[in-house]
Amino acid sequence: METGSDGWGNNELQNYTESGNVFVENGNLIIEARKENGTGAEFSSARINTHRKASWTYGKIEARIKLPYGQGIWPAFWMLGENIDTVGYPASGEMDIMEMIGGKSVDDGSNNETLIS
Fold this sequence. Notes:
Blueprint: E1 14-16, E2 22-25, E3 28-31, E4 34-35, E5 43-45, E6 76-80, H1 84-87, E7 94-101, E8 115-116
Parallel strand pairs: 1-5
Antiparallel strand pairs: 2-3, 4-5, 6-7, 7-8
């Protein structure tokens, strides 16, 4: 778990908590963002990683993710290189598996107002 509310380099408005916003329900990992009062940030959420717990050289990473919708949200599922402690970012590399930019219009005739890359 990564905790804090210092913007994480992206001017993020949420306070990442250690409990309450992340839990397992019916075998599914739930990461829940909430509108909050009195937490030092307008929103709370969770940020988790596997750094120093697991790493892969080859393989397949798979997830089934239910995404929220709304202006200003940016959920993401991504990986950094195992050597981030020694070479830093961006030299360690980054692999974006999924990023969803909420509130952006896609003019493809589908009436879908969410951009997923």
